[in-house]
Predict the 3D structure of the following.
Amino acid sequence: NDIERTDASLTATWEVNDALTIKSISGYQDLDSHVLGDTDTTPSNLVVSNFPVWSKTWSQEFNFQTSAFNDRLQTVAGLYYLHDRLGARKRVPVGYLAVLRVLPLSVALDPGLGFDFDQLATSYAAFLDATYSVTDRFRLTAGMRQTWEEKEFSQVNVLGLTTTCNRSDELKYD
């Protein structure tokens, strides 16, 4: 098994004045993994599957923090963006079927049984949170968030050298 992962984040804060602070929060992740697995469910390693997975994610948030009325009212408003791409490929060699005498297949068909998967997710959000201190011990808080998300995905199922299914859809959420 081999896993490589890179993570990076950056937070920058600018105090514009006593009543306004602007903050930028950025994030990045790159993941590449390659996993070999015993898929024959026996004590012997007769069938080993190949399962690489990769992901690249980037996010950005800007928030604006304000205070008013002698700091009795604290607000945070912001915008958020996320871009995520995920892919996977799984293969189980079919040459083992000849060894097990299930089907007369040769090692030449070792593109295998499996699938290719690809997903793209994009998300946008706007949010607001406000807290008002009525007294030192009693506070009122209200908040809201609206998120828009789109996902595109495709999956191709593979049987030997032929494709059995191809699907691509786009999903939108409000």
